[in-house]
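wait is this the right file?? whatever heres the structure
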């Protein structure tokens, strides 16, 4: 890295945010929501002139486009880089040299998704630009956890504040062993006061994670769901499964671990359903649940744009107050 880090803050893991910052980010996202949802005045310009680099080395629909919408809503531009046949990687340039050259172009921030655990943190030690983690291997997906937290707070009419989730029980169910969404959520939701219970089948059961984080690991899906205020369903991360893992076929998985209308009745009467997407319908979640009245799945996506607006402003060194005030006349 040549020169000091740029103004702004990295977001590599949810632990990069203290409780006060978490609540401030969520509050800013709530305030930005009319614009994020396309319903408000299109005049927020806090990031006008900013250029943000996006490096996505894994597939994505929601996160990739959500960041783009968020950047554009604040007046910033996004530029994509992929170390593929169209780049100088084809001429033997190393990844690090490529990234240093890109950094020398003066990007304000970098949004990165990668299959390697810890890649975002590593990048933050190599670049002047501030780094936002859009998912690194099985490690973390901090903006997903922030948007999930905002969805839960909205569903239970609570304001972002320390202890805001006290009294709420969140069941995170599915492949937590290979998934980053569950890990980030577990940490963030507990920091806000939620009780979190984990559940996963057989070899996907997050035994080590539950032990390391000191949370309950339910023996089956029913136990996890009973009385829960939130059922967060996660898909099997087939792209990260090691060789030799014996998984049931989709129908068997659904019978034992799928969120069906019958299992939905186990939740608290006010309980809601979240899923980060992409969903595997008929596997971890039934159609009738995904599309039913207790589903907040599409709301998560809308709130995600607002969260990413606040996160990009923070990454570019623009205060959240400015973000809300800086409007075109
Ligand atoms: N939730 C999520 O990360 O979705 P994508 O993989 O489509 O970005």
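ok assuming it is, sequence goes like this
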């Amino acid at each position: 890295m040549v020169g000091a880090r740029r103004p702004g803050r990295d977001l590599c893991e949810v632990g990069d945010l203290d409780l006060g910052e978490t609540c401030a980010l969520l509050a800013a996202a709530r305030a930005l929501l009319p614009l994020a949802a396309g319903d408000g005045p299109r005049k927020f310009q806090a990031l006008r002139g900013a250029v943000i680099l996006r490096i996505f080395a894994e597939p994505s629909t929601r996160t990739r486009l959500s960041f783009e919408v968020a950047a554009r809503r604040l007046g910033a531009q996004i530029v994509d880089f992929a170390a593929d046949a169209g780049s100088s990687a084809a001429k033997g340039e190393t990844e690090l040299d490529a990234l240093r050259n890109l950094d020398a172009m003066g990007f304000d921030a970098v949004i990165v998704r990668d299959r390697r655990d810890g890649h975002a943190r590593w990048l933050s030690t190599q670049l002047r630009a501030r780094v936002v983690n859009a998912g690194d291997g099985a490690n973390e997906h901090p903006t997903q956890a922030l948007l999930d937290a905002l969805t839960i707070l909205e569903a239970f009419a609570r304001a972002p504040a320390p202890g805001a989730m006290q009294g709420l029980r969140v069941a995170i169910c599915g492949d937590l062993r290979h998934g980053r969404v569950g890990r980030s959520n577990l940490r963030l939701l507990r920091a806000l006061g939620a009780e979190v219970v984990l559940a996963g089948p057989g070899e996907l059961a997050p035994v080590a994670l539950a032990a390391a984080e000191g949370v309950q690991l339910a023996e089956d899906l029913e136990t996890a769901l009973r009385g829960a205020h939130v059922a967060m369903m996660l898909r099997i991360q087939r792209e990260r499964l090691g060789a030799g893992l014996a998984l049931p076929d989709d129908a068997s998985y659904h019978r034992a671990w799928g969120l069906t209308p019958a299992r939905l009745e186990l939740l608290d009467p006010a309980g809601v359903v979240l899923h980060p997407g992409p969903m595997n319908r008929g596997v971890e979640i039934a159609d009738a649940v995904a599309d039913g009245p207790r589903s907040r799945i599409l709301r998560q996506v809308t709130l995600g744009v607002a969260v990413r607006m606040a996160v990009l402003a923070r990454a570019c060194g623009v205060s959240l107050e400015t973000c809300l005030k800086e409007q075109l006349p």
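The radius of gyration is 20 Å. so i think its the right one actually
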